[in-house]
Each structure stands twice: as structure tokens, then as C-alpha cells.
Design goal:
The chain has 17 helices and 22 strands. The protein is an alpha+beta fold. Among the domains are: 93 residues, Nucleic acid-binding proteins (OB fold (Dihydrolipoamide Acetyltransferase, E2P), Beta Barrel), CATH 2.40.50.140; 126 residues, 2-Layer Sandwich (Gyrase A, domain 2), CATH 3.30.1360; 79 residues, no CATH class. It binds aspartic acid.
Length: 592
């Protein structure tokens, strides 16, 4: 190599060694008689210095011609620094330069390559290769590398086989839109990019692979949010001859292995919570369990006292915010405004301040006596100094709104510490959910959708409800939730043709349609399909969670922006008339 050491390597024990270093110029400081250069590579920064009268004049001249981000090869002697820098691993030493070779020059970068860069998002996306020179972004990718390595170590140790599945496939129904690719050789026909390798991994179980995994790119054409990218990566897994408990046990093991080997954290075993409990106590199927603040239902306690809002409600429920009784009018108004925002959707907020002198003050004093409020407080186990926040209305909507309020209070009270991790399994999801907005081919408004996907098996005991009360059927489906984020989800699958066919019928597929789209899978089920199930983890999301960040973008080397655009290579982009013609796509069909 052109270097003897990296820029992060030299220590006091290396003093007097003659070394060669290569790297980028972080900055230079010219004090006239002395000149310093900070040289950076991915391993660290080393300080170089040159001295008027002592350093060769031609070397000094060369050094004075360099600027930020020039690429250098230098030679010199390691010396002990007079003023040491304890923030730098190499801060005890510096290099007395004897020669400088400029390997390449650099234009002035469009933003500073420093922790607190002056570059905005768009600029950094356009010059992503420069952004990747910044420590924090590089460290995120190193964390990602470690996560992938440790995932492979764990799964390989359990006999999982990594198998690649195709990228040019046909539509998989994971609930999002497909990205499609026109086929030149089959005019008018298209491939779809996989939303996940779901059907392939199931077929691998039919083939007898028994334990499969893949760290794999998936594609979903959805509206983007901070934690979504059109292409993203899953740790995709499937096992045969297992029960749901086996899957939960195996993949709880994976997550604990990652915490242990990537973050040095010993995670306790992961508790299970039913979907019903998650909704009833946290108003969310992905509760943040870093803090308690569980919902308490107040419906029967609070009704019948003449307060029309509560009397007409399907659910009255609330949370107890510890130590918040002294919230000011302004703070309480802000909370009311918060729950009334359209995305939260509550009509108003009722509060009860449990004063430290044992008295109560509420926004419904007109309807409820001190005795009533005392009863509520004991229902909540509230102590003097606590604040009760209560919502009411239709059950599902109230739960959701109260869930948002709970998270807001968690934020306000500093209970959502990024360095604390709380994982749980949410189990017993409903099999189906009703969607008003999609129609059946017959024109009938609304239809049942698979909550996870159509290959998920119903709980055997609930099968009889499929006709009478489809919304009540529970699935053998589970999600892993960490700190209120769904990091993975999966299910035990259907593995016989008749049940799979029945499922498609319930979802409104005609026999013909089901056969056309998924005939290959149902055929395979007739050739000795073993019982099987699996899970997929959102790898980008898992990495951002481990890295303590909200967005997955900085854990992806070359991400897209919120409009699905890669600002650096400037795509999506038009293609030539020639290419369009070859693909049998009529130019007139296109906007641009
Ligand atoms: N294919 C599913 C998904 O992408 C995961 C699974 O059921 O294994 O969410």
C-alpha cells in the first residue's frame, strides 16, 4: 500500500518511527513559521506539521498549495505533541513531515465535511459521496455492516441457508403498489419487482430447505415518509416444521444476539402481548413500552352523571401523567389543541388535576363532585400531584387518539430515551380488516383485506367465524416491536390448497383470478408442503433504531429523497425514443 499506517493508528509508542500516511486534507492552519495539516481517512485524523527553516523549502511550498479535501501521501517522523488533544485517538502525537505528494487536488467542497456540516439535506444528497466522508454517516454504515455480519453469524449457526430469490417476478400482494419493468421480449408484458420474497421462501420450504434466510432488497411504490424508502432491505426468514412459539423463540434470539454483539446490551427475554391488549392499553399495535402510562377505562364509572359527552360515548378512557398536576392553563390548552388536530381526531380533552393537598380540579367540575373525581383518581391509582387526561368517543378512534396523547406525554416527560430499548412481541392479530375504500369487482363497496398477507393462517379455533364474523378471526401472525416501532413481522402460513383457496375467496378473488396470480403456490401445496412460517425484519429500520436515529435514510448508502428521487444520479429520468420503441411503449402514453 501507499501508506505504512492509517490516520487513526499512531500512538505515543510509535514516536521516532518513519511513517507514510495517505488521506484527505481536513484543514490546514498556517501560522507563518509553522504549518499544520489535519489528514483524515476512514480510521481517524492525524496532525501533520511543517516548520519554516527546518522542513525542506520545496516541501513547505507544496504544502502551502494544498486545500481542503486534497488527497495526499506524506512521509515523516512521529513526534510527541507539546499540546496534546485528548479528543483525538492520535492526539498525543503529530508527524514531522519530510515529503508531500499530492495524489489529487479537490475543488472546494459544497459543504463542510464536519460533524456539524453547513450543508442542507438536498445539497448533501446531491453530493452523497462527500456526505459519506463525514464520520456520523460513515459510522452508520459501519453499524449496518456489523448488523448484517452478526445476523449471518447467528442464522448460519442455526443451520439457516442463504438463498437468493429473483428480482424480476410478478406481483406479490403485500398491500403496496408494485414497481414494474417492461419486458422487451414480451411486448405489452411486465415484470414486477418483489415487495418481498414471500412466495419464493414458501416454495423453498416445499422444496425441503427447512431453514432459509436472505438479506434482501424489496420494492414498494408507496408514498414516502421519514422511515420509508421505495427500495429497502429485509432480513427475510422462513422455517418448516415449527410452531409459532419456535419462530418467536428463534427470532427473539436473533434480536438479542444483535443487541449483545453490536451494542453490548444484554436484553431480557421479550414479553408477548395480544393485539387486543395492545389496543386496549396503549391504543396502538406497536406500543412503546419504554414507559407504562397504560390506559384505564372509565366508561361505567363516569357515565350516568349527566355529562352528555361521556354519556353518549362508546368508550371513556384516560391516562395518568405522573407529577403533572401543576400544569398551567396554557400547557393544558396546548394538550387540548394537540388532541384536536385532525390527525389525532379527538373532539376535546377532559383533565383532572390531583392537587398535592388532596383536592381535585377538573375541566368537568360542573358535572362531577369531589367524591366522583376521587373515585376516578383511585381507579387510576393516581397520587397527589398527578394529572388525569381523559378522552371519549367511538372506541377505536378514542384508543388511537389516547395512544397519540400517551406518546406525546412520554415525550414531554422524557420517558422515550433513545438509549433505552424495550422489545415486545405483539401476537394474535386479526386475520382480516375491512377497507371501505376498495370495491369488489361486482361493484360492492368495501372489502376484507388480509391484515398481514393472504398466506397467513387463521387460528384453527377461529376458523368457524370466517363466515359469521370475519373481523373476529385471529391470525397466527406476530410483530416484533421495539420502542414503538414495528421492526419485524411474520406469520404461520397456510400450507394446503383448500384453505388457501378459501382465503382468496374471502378476499374477493374469483377462482380464476386466484389461479392466475397464485396458481403456482396452490399447485405446490399439493406436492407435500410442510407446515411452515416465517418473519421478515426491516433491516434499515433495525439499523436506525440501533443507531438511535429516527430516519432510515442515513443508514442507507445512497438513499432516495421524499419524492423517491435519487438527487445524485438524478433519477427517475426519461429514456430515449429508441428504448421506448424497443419496449413497445407508445410515446403518446407518456406525459414527458
Ligand atoms: N413477507 C412479509 C413482509 O414483508 C413477512 C413475512 O410474513 O414473513 O412483511
Amino acid at each position: 500500500m501507499l501508506r505504512t499506517h492509517t490516520c487513526g493508528e499512531l500512538r505515543i509508542s510509535d514516536v521516532n518511527k518513519t511513517v507514510s500516511l495517505t488521506g484527505w486534507v481536513q484543514r490546514t492552519r498556517d501560522k507563518g513559521s509553522l504549518l499544520w495539516i489535519d489528514l483524515r481517512d476512514r480510521y481517524g485524523i492525524t496532525q501533520l506539521f511543517l516548520e519554516e527553516g527546518k522542513t525542506d523549502a520545496s516541501v513547505l511550498t507544496a504544502a502551502r498549495g494544498i486545500g481542503r479535501e486534497f488527497v495526499l501521501k506524506v512521509q515523516g517522523i512521529v513526534v510527541e505533541r507539546i499540546s496534546k488533544n485528548d479528543k483525538l485517538a492520535t492526539g498525543d502525537i503529530e508527524i514531522k513531515i519530510t515529503s508531500i505528494e499530492i495524489l489529487n487536488s479537490s475543488k472546494v467542497p459544497p459543504f463542510t465535511i464536519e460533524e456539524n456540516t453547513d450543508g442542507g439535506d438536498d445539497l448533501r444528497m446531491k453530493y452523497r459521496y462527500l456526505d459519506l466522508r463525514r464520520n456520523s454517516v460513515r459510522e452508520n454504515l459501519m453499524l449496518r455492516h456489523k448488523m448484517a455480519q452478526q445476523t449471518r453469524i447467528y442464522l448460519d449457526g442455526l443451520n439457516f441457508i442463504e438463498v437468493e430469490t429473483p428480482v424480476l417476478i410478478k406481483s406479490t400482494p403485500e398491500g403496496a403498489r408494485d414497481f414494474v419493468v417492461p419486458s422487451r421480449m414480451n411486448p405489452g408484458e411486465f415484470y414486477a419487482l418483489p415487495q418481498s420474497p414471500q412466495t419464493f421462501k414458501q416454495l423453498l420450504m416445499v422444496s425441503g430447505f427447512d431453514r432459509y434466510y436472505q438479506i434482501v432488497k424489496c420494492f414498494r411504490d408507496e408514498d414516502l415518509r421519514a422511515d420509508r424508502q421505495p427500495e429497502f432491505t429485509q432480513i427475510d426468514c422462513e422455517m418448516a416444521f415449527i410452531t409459532q412459539e419456535d419462530i418467536l423463540h428463534t427470532f427473539e434470539g436473533l434480536v438479542r444476539h444483535l443487541f449483545k454483539h453490536v451494542k453490548g446490551i444484554d436484553m431480557p427475554s421479550v414479553p408477548h402481548m395480544t393485539y387486543a391488549d395492545a389496543m386496549n392499553f396503549y391504543g396502538s399495535d406497536k406500543p412503546d413500552t419504554r414507559f407504562e402510562m397504560k390506559f384505564k377505562e372509565l366508561t361505567s364509572v363516569a357515565q350516568g352523571k349527566g355529562f352528555p359527552v361521556f354519556d353518549g360515548a362508546e368508550l371513556v378512557a384516560g391516562i395518568c401523567a405522573t407529577g403533572c398536576a401543576e400544569y398551567t392553563r396554557k400547557q393544558l390548552d396546548e394538550l387540548t389543541e394537540f388532541v384536536k388536530k385532525p390527525q389525532i381526531g379527538a373532539k376535546g380533552l377532559v383533565y383532572v388535576q390531583c392537587k398535592s393537598d388532596g383536592t381535585f380540579k377538573s375541566s368537568v367540575d360542573k358535572f362531577y363532585s369531589a367524591d366522583d373525581l376521587k373515585k376516578w383518581a383511585s381507579h387510576f391509582d393516581a397520587q397527589p400531584g398527578d394529572l388525569l387526561l381523559i378522552l371519549s368517543g367511538e372506541k377505536a378512534k378514542t384508543q388511537k387518539a389516547l395512544g397519540e396523547l400517551r406518546l406525546k406525554m412520554g415525550d414531554l416527560l422524557g420517558l422515550r430515551d433513545k438509549n433505552k430499548f424495550s422489545a415486545l412481541w405483539v401476537v394474535d392479530f386479526p386475520l382480516l380488516e375491512w377497507n371501505e375504500e376498495t370495491n369488489l369487482p361486482t361493484g360492492q363497496a368495501g372489502r376484507w383485506h388480509a391484515m398481514h398477507h393472504p398466506f397467513t393462517s387463521p387460528k384453527p379455533g377461529d376458523l368457524s367465524l370466517l363466515d359469521s364474523d370475519p373481523g373476529k378471526v385471529r391470525a397466527n401472525a406476530y410483530d416484533m416491536v421495539i420502542n414503538g416501532t414495528e421492526v419485524g413481522g411474520g406469520s404461520i402460513r397456510i400450507h394446503d390448497r383448500a384453505t388457501q383457496q378459501l382465503m382468496f375467496t374471502k378476499l374477493g378473488f374469483s377462482d380464476e383470478e386466484a389461479k392466475k396470480q397464485f396458481g403456482f403456490l396452490m399447485d405446490a401445496f399439493e406436492f407435500g408442503a410442510p407446515p411452515h412460517g416465517g418473519i421478515a425484519f426491516g433491516f434499515d429500520r433495525l439499523c436506525s433504531l440501533f443507531g438511535g436515529a429516527d430516519s432510515i435514510r442515513d443508514f442507507i448508502a445512497f438513499p432516495k429523497n421524499n419524492s423517491g428521487r435519487d438527487m445524485m444520479i438524478d433519477t427517475p429520468s426519461t429514456i430515449s425514443q429508441e428504448q421506448l420503441k424497443e419496449l413497445s411503449i407508445s410515446v403518446n402514453d407518456l406525459k414527458k
